[in-house]
Amino acid sequence: TGAAPGRPRQLPFTPIAPQARTLDAVTVPAGYRWDAILRWGDPILAGAPAFDPAAQTPEAQAGQFGYNNDYLDIIETNRAGTTALLVCNHEYTNENIMFPPGTAAETVVRTAWAAHGMSVVELTRRKRGDVWTYVPGARLNRRITLDTIFTVDGPAAGSDLLKTKADPTGRTVRGTMNNCAGGTTPWGTVLSGEENFNQYFLATGTERTESRYGLSPTQDSRRWRDFDPRWNATSADYKNEPNRFGWIVEVGPTDPTSTPVKHTAMGRFKHEGANVIVNSDGHVVAYMGDDERFDYVYRFVSRDTMRPGNSPKARQHNLTLLSEGDLSVARFTGDGLADGVSDGTGEWIPLTRGGASMVPGFTIEEVLVFTRLAADAVQPTKMDRPEDVEPSLRSGRIYVACTNNTSRQAAQVDEANPRPLNKDGHVVEMIPTNGDHTANTFAWNLILICGNEQSAGRYFGGWTGPVSPISCPDNVAFDSEGNLWVSTDGQPAAIGLNDGLFKVPVDGPERGHVQQFLAVPSGAETCGPVIRDLEGSVFVAVQHPGEDGTYAAPQSRFPDYVPAGSNAAAGQFAGPRPSVVQVTRS
Ligand code: FEO
Ligand code: CA
Ligand code: CA
Ligand code: CA
């Protein structure tokens, strides 16, 4: 295979066959191998104990790799490419498979707090292209948990809406959680989206500011409030605690002493993630999805411009870029289906401009803290669960993974969300007017309308040859040639196949040619794809393998496939461990 478009020289592969949802294995193309390079419970911080699933403690977990790895990046730190920082989100916990029966409720809850958040871990290898090894106790290793102190910045910092008994300033939040997808910025920090935060709170849900975010009296099955009153939002003291989650957070991975930040200027919703591109005029533009049925796609444009270079002064300036800027929300208008394709034009409707509210009846603080309500007032397009929204740094086009929406009724379809009861999802391609990411308008089309051969309305960017079946697109990434890579979450339920990772050329004659690269084990979702085609490596975070099992009767034994009945106390855990996997050419 040569260097034809869509076939990166260093990552040629024959697509794998779709894998049945019961297969408890990682499947990679012929000629490739996979290795787990970090597992839930691996000790990271100096002094952290080895993983002992039979006797977990919050203290041990706070020094170990967290649960349910999602967003992932591998940031090289030397010229030779032999050292790097792995940065990873830990979205949530599956208590049913994490803890032995009979574990004390308080141990379960406090350990779960420490299993949430993020990890920063130093990696090393002999030469470029090798499998990475993580370095326990390394200097830059860090765990961020629900106990890590965050600073709040931007126009809503210090707002009454963010004050609680424990933080009367409204400027300091303890912890981050439900960190889903994310993005690495050009200035070397990592952005992470706080997504389904509502599920941890007891709330009355009577006010629209609560119910619009899913806060209710029935969401807190984990009962965290039994061990910390801040999770009880029905109390006057902590009524505002839910307002302190649902943000984009920014972490500087090269300084383990730095205080991570929650950026209120970027709005509050169920943030899937945020991906940044530098516009030609130097303004920094972040694209973001609100992962809920019938919710919206957002854009943030920084007030200031990025300073090039890596001087301390430039770095200090760039760390403030996401603190002030304009937030807007997308409206997609179709040009009719008579042309045979879902496409059209769109506009960015302003929610804030120059630090002021653009939504009548809302203060700037209200727009930013109750962003969903402010957006509702300006009639954006209700999307089929927009997850990852990421610009291609090569083409400047933006890709929106709309994972699915089985609640959309026939009367609710529009050209950008064209299928009722949409179980398979689609991918939107957005093209900024004149290549300007600060423009108020854009063109768009659906590059993928996902499914298998039985799916109505499926469409693959005009490609009419064979494709791998694909459903429920979630995360997107790009390789060095600009091909789109899509990972999925939900294929087992939608089309009966294990979730996977797919390559899709977006230019040239193979535009839309979906090819499956790997499949993850039973019950798992494919997260955080990182495509390093120039060195023949692909990384994925395998999230919630075997999630419907129990500790005693696991439904997955990924990644070590330890025989059932082994002695957990001897480090022989027969259950699944969410892990970061590196795929290399064998
Ligand atoms: Fe946590 Fe929207 O996926
Ligand atoms: Ca059309
Ligand atoms: Ca996701
Ligand atoms: Ca991505």
Automatic annotation (TrEMBL):
InterPro entries: PhoX. Pfam families: PhoX. It comes from the Bacteria. PANTHER family: DUF839 DOMAIN-CONTAINING PROTEIN, SLR8030 PROTEIN. This is PhoX family phosphatase.
